[in-house]
């Protein structure tokens, strides 16, 4: 199956920094984003990202299965970025199961979802910890990439010491 992507041309107005206001208008910025080729709709990406986060917190394996179904069979999940990635849907599901089985209670809330092309960034508020303990509160960035069928092919999770309270 092949999909043709229409090539779009755009011309953004220059942004000046010579003591004047930016000359890039909202319309030019939107046109620039609209010119990025995509395989799936923005609505699909936003819905998928929200579906991913809606499975938190999970108490039983059945509650994480819908999260795993969002992934392509050869997807890669890197959490946190720089750690060895989980490669393939089965390995990703095993990772989700292992966090559940370890007793971790994880809450995730996407505060803002930014979509560009076939990717999205979620500015996420999260917390995790074991029962009867004070959870860590974390600000994270999730980077999602989607294939032409609308499945997630990559997730990269960013956070560091400065985002943990």
TrEMBL record:
> What organism does this protein naturally occur in?
Paraburkholderia sacchari
Q: What is this protein called?
A: SnoaL-like domain-containing protein
**Which InterPro entries does the UniProt record give?**
NTF2-like_dom_sf, SnoaL-like
What Pfam families would the database entry show?
SnoaL_2 (PF12680)
Disordered: where is this region?
1-23
Q: SnoaL-like domain spans which residues?
A: 49-155
